[in-house]
Amino acid sequence: AKEDYNIILSGPWNEFFENSARHAATIAYEEKDYAAAFNYYDQLAENTSNIQMRELAYNGLVKSGFNSGKYQEAALYADSLLALPGISTETSNDALYFKARSLQHFDSGSNDALEIYRQLSRNKNGDIAAESRYHIAEILFKQDKLKEAEDAANQTIHLSSGYDYWIGKAYLLLTDILVKQKDYFNAKALLESIVKHTKI
């Protein structure tokens, strides 16, 4: 099917172009060929006047851009998606999440990412909230704000019940903080406790 869609997409714009770009993008994304998916979504975004199709294209550009390492493009398309009228809360949350992750990739101590994560840490989606809390602690640690990072890591542990992966990551971050503070005894004790108690 993708080969046939490519034939349509290699020619001039016609009535089949929009659907071909959409289907080809979906196939490429599901095959984890994110670079190809990004190009198909880009073609769709440039050639559609339909607002729902534009939303789908921007959403695809954000996710495939992030997954193919185009972090700056993904952050910019997240802004384009957020600027569209009438998008759902779920789509808005996804756009903010991928924007923060993208900003963090090309600027690991990004204050912009930090602000978005703070917003997402109160999200109704527990998984997004737990991950966001962890990334807040992670960024503060990279900024060498050790006390704030420690508080944020502890908050991740206390508020993320049921999300063992992010709790485990927060404990590991606490050991990094202890090592940076040269408190090797407690760092070792905490690591031994993680080994003993974690199921992951």
Protein described:
By secondary structure, the chain is an all-alpha fold. It has eleven helices and no strands. Helix 10 packs antiparallel against helix 11 (184-197). The chain is elongated and about 70 Å long.
Summarize the structure.
This protein is mainly alpha-helical.
Task: Spell out the blueprint of helices and strands.
Blueprint: H1 2-10, H2 17-30, H3 34-47, H4 51-67, H5 71-82, H6 89-106, H7 111-120, H8 126-142, H9 146-159, H10 164-180, H11 184-197
Gyration radius from CA atoms, angstroms = 21 Å
Low-pLDDT parts are none
Termini separation (Å)?
Answer: 40 Å
Give the helix level as a range of percent.
over 70%
Largest sheet: none
Which class of secondary structure composition applies to the elements?
mainly alpha
Helix-strand sequence = HHHHHHHHHHH
Mean pLDDT: 92
Shape descriptor reads elongated
Name the beta content range.
under 5%
Topology, number of strands: 0
Count of helices? 11
